[in-house]
Design brief:
mainly alpha, about 130 residues, about 75% helix, elongated, 4 helices, 2 domains
Amino acid sequence: MATTNPQVETVSSSADKAKLAAAGVLVVGAVAAFYLLAAQPLWLRVVALLVLLAAAVGVFLVSETGKQLIAFGQDSARETKKVVWPSRKEAMQMTGYVFAFVLVMALFLWLTDKTLEWVLYDLVLGWRR
């Protein structure tokens, strides 16, 4: 059974599509300007690149997609503030449990490997004497 999220909207206006296209053109223009200004000093090329990229970001952020991205970032930040982090003592205990488990598992796998090696090579095949 497929469920749909009522908050997801895939309909975008032609003005929104134009904003996204303009942002894309500005990004391409920024890169093109950087290389077309090869005869100019590096600082001027970098300034042109950064100005055009900033304009592209600005145009993107005023589009509906950009507004959704900003809202997503704000929601993510709000959810991150709700996280209850473990205390130092709890973190150290859990780290100790993980190390102990890894050590026990490594010993178990090593013993299993050596037992199978002994059974196969010594008992079954008789290759070692």
